[in-house]
C-alpha cells in the first residue's frame, strides 16, 4: 500500500509539473515593459517564442508627466527601418502617436501614453522571421536615442513576463 501511495504521489506531482509548465508557456506570449519620466524602458531585449501565434505587449508609464511633454509608446519594426519611421513620424504629431499614418514598416505599436497610464498591443508573430533583426522604440520626438531595444524570434521565450 505504501509503495502504491508513493507511486501515486509521484505521478500526481509529475502531472502537476506538466500543467504548470503548460501555464508558464502560455504566459510566454506576452510581456510588460515600463517607461518613465527619465526616458527609459525597463527592458532592452524581448525574446518571442516562435510557438506563439500572437504576442501581446503591455506598456506602462510609471512617471508623472503628461503625454504632451513626456509621452511614450512602443513601436516594433525591422531594425533598418527604425530611424526613418521615427523621423517621418515626428510631423504626424501627438494625435497620430508620432507615427506616419498607415506606415507599412510598423509591425506593431501601442498608443502614446503619459504618466500613470497603460496601453496594450497584440500582433501576429508570423510577421517575424528568425533571420531578421527587429527593434522596439519610442517614437516621441527625441526619445529614440535612449528608448530602444531588440526583439528576437526564438525557439523558446526567456523574457521576463
Strand-residue fraction?
25-35%
What is the helix tally? 3
The CATH H-level superfamily is Cupredoxins -  blue copper proteins
> How many structural domains are formed by the residues?
1
Q: How much helix, percentage-wise, in residues?
A: 10-25%
Structure in words:
The protein is α/β, with parallel strands linked by helices and 161 residues long. It has one domain (28-154): Cupredoxins -  blue copper proteins (Immunoglobulin-like, Sandwich), CATH 2.60.40.420. The chain has 3 helices and 8 strands; from the N terminus they run H-E-E-E-H-E-H-E-E-E-E. It has helices spanning 2-27, 67-70, 82-89; strands at 30-35, 45-49, 54-61, 75-78, 106-109, 118-124, 134-137, 148-154. The strands form 2 sheets. A 5-stranded mixed sheet has the order 2-8-7-4-5, with no helix packed on it. Strands 1-3-6 form a 3-stranded mixed sheet, with no helix packed on it. The longest helix is centred in the N-terminal third of the chain and has 26 residues, at 2-27. The chain is globular.
Amino acid at each position: 500500500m505504501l509503495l502504491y501511495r508513493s507511486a501515486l504521489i509521484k505521478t500526481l506531482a509529475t502531472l502537476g509539473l506538466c500543467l504548470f509548465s503548460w501555464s508558464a508557456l502560455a504566459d510566454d506570449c506576452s510581456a510588460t515593459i515600463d517607461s518613465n519620466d527619465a526616458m527609459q524602458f525597463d527592458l532592452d531585449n524581448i525574446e518571442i517564442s516562435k510557438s506563439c501565434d500572437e504576442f501581446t505587449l503591455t506598456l506602462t508609464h510609471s512617471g508623472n508627466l503628461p503625454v504632451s511633454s513626456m509621452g511614450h509608446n512602443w513601436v516594433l519594426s525591422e531594425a533598418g527601418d527604425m530611424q526613418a519611421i521615427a523621423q517621418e513620424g515626428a510631423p504626424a504629431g501627438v494625435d497620430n502617436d508620432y507615427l506616419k499614418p498607415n506606415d507599412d514598416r510598423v509591425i506593431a505599436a501601442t498608443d502614446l501614453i503619459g504618466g500613470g497610464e497603460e496601453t496594450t498591443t497584440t500582433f501576429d508573430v508570423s510577421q517575424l522571421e528568425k533571420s531578421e533583426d527587429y527593434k522596439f522604440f519610442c517614437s516621441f520626438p527625441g526619445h529614440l536615442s535612449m528608448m530602444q531595444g531588440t526583439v528576437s524570434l526564438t525557439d523558446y521565450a526567456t523574457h521576463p513576463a
